[in-house]
Specification:
39% helix; Aspartate Aminotransferase, domain 2; 2 domains; 7-stranded mixed sheet; alpha/beta; 438 residues; Aspartate Aminotransferase, domain 1; globular
Length: 438
């Protein structure tokens, strides 16, 4: 196969054979496509000519659909004007004003190219603003940044000094006492709490988020909402709008530009302006990238956001996801798999939950399910719904669910699971060594 050969060639010259670990071959079972040649709407096509209904959608960055004409028209128009200039461009002003008008917590905004940049910038701002050193992250959130401040707290901490890693602490979602304990252990020394306000892994209970907001305000801790995933998916104005809680700083990315590389740091003026020129305090070297305001990316973001403000994109994601979840869980229950394979989370961002008999994540069962979905022309490493997913793709997907879940039932009834898939099982990204599993 062309795809297999090309993937091997790529891995010889690019570490891990990709530029985001979530795209690595260890995250996909056989016979997943190796290299993607193009995408159109809700579909992608690999180099062998195979077509797949795509639920990966560029790691959730494609909200309208691949090659959406409205976005491409704006991008092409901007390309005719230029991509990068020696002074700020008009598109920077246009997009900045759009964001300030849209996002509740945004009094100022700074653009960058990926989520890691803006979360790292938020952390730096919080430390400068408070004069404190510790950063507290929600331990249940999988990823904030590839920079040292966060990666040092994960199993993939090779190359990061312990002196840096120990400055990042963890609390638990829906457990306000776990945060209070850290506050008590490090009085007056916690600069920020950073977290995803909502997630496909949990829902807030017992007014947790309001208690958290009250605690951070009382202790002078900067509250940062990481809305890289939730923004422009859970709600056009971010999860902060859904829950009615305003953070001090917030980060956006992924879906805001329909696959183009744009991220944003937004927040309160008195904090954000520390990265500016209109104050007499020590300067914060906030974000300063050559391509941070690349014009065609900003044009894509402006077009995407304006389209989403005009059309029921968010409503479509919630409706489609709800129908998908109901169908999956009904079929799973019919096969007696409702304790092993379920679809959970919010309808706009469902998550497949695969468990073993020990109630822990079963990567083998997940591998079997995903491989059968691929056989039916569905690539669903996670579920990212776009505006281009329609009745046809939903029908194809539900039919594939029936086949894949039936195969999972057969595999469970005929152990071991390892005989029901080819090659290695899917592995978690967060592992100390490549050979580690589970």
């Amino acid at each position: 196969m062309i795809s297999s050969n090309s993937s091997e060639r790529l891995e010889l010259i690019v570490p891990a054979g990709c530029h985001t670990y979530s795209k690595g071959r260890d995250q996909f079972p056989f016979p997943a496509p190796g290299l993607i040649e193009r995408g159109q709407g809700a579909y992608i096509y690999d180099v062998d000519g195979n077509r797949y209904v795509d639920y990966g959608m560029g790691l959730r960055s494609v909200t309208l659909g691949h090659c959406h004409p409205y976005v491409l028209k704006s991008v092409k128009a901007q390309l005719d004007k230029g991509s990068n200039f020696t002074r700020p461009s008009t598109i920077e002003l246009d997009l900045a004003e759009e964001i300030i008008d849209l996002i509740p917590a945004a009094e100022m905004v700074k653009f960058a190219k990926n989520g890691s940049d803006v979360t790292a910038a938020a952390v730096r701002l919080a430390r400068a603003y408070t004069g404190r050193k510790y950063i507290v992250v929600c331990g249940e959130d999988p990823f904030y940044s590839f920079y040292d401040w966060f990666i040092g707290s994960t199993p993939c901490n090779s190359g990061i000094p312990q002196e840096i890693a120990q400055l990042t602490l963890k609390f638990h979602y829906n457990n306000i006492s776990s945060l209070q304990t850290l506050v008590d252990q490090h009085p007056g020394d916690i600069a920020a709490v950073i977290m995803e306000p909502l997630s496909d892994r949990f829902q807030p209970e017992d007014d947790f988020l309001r208690h958290l907001r009250a605690l951070t305000e009382k202790e002078g801790i900067v509250l940062i909402f990481d809305e890289i995933i939730t923004g422009f998916r859970y709600d056009l104005r971010g999860a902060q709008n859904l829950i009615g809680i305003s953070p001090d700083l917030c980060t956006f990315g992924k879906g805001c530009a329909n696959g183009f590389s744009v991220s944003m740091l937004c927040g309160r003026r008195e904090i954000m302006e520390l990265g500016g020129l209109c104050h007499d305090k020590p300067r914060v070297f906030l974000l300063s990238g050559t391509h941070g305001a690349e014009a065609h990316g900003l044009a894509a973001a402006l077009a995407t956001i304006r389209f989403m403000r005009r059309e029921p994109v968010i409503e479509h994601m919630w409706t489609y996801g709800r129908l998908m979840m109901e169908a999956f869980n009904k079929i799973s229950s019919e096969y007696g798999l409702d304790r092993r394979l379920t679809m959970v989370g919010y309808p706009c961002s469902p998550r497949l939950k695969a468990l073993g008999v020990d109630a822990r994540v079963s990567y083998e069962l997940l591998t079997i399910f995903q491989s059968r979905m691929i056989n039916q022309g569905i690539l669903s490493p996670w579920i990212a719904i776009s505006y281009s997913h329609d009745d046809e793709t939903l029908d194809i997907t539900i039919k594939a669910f029936k086949i894949a879940l039936e195969e999972c039932r057969k595999a469970i009834d005929n152990p071991p699971l390892s005989q029901h898939y080819i090659g290695e099982p899917i592995k978690p990204v967060w592992r100390k060594f490549n050979a580690d599993f589970g």
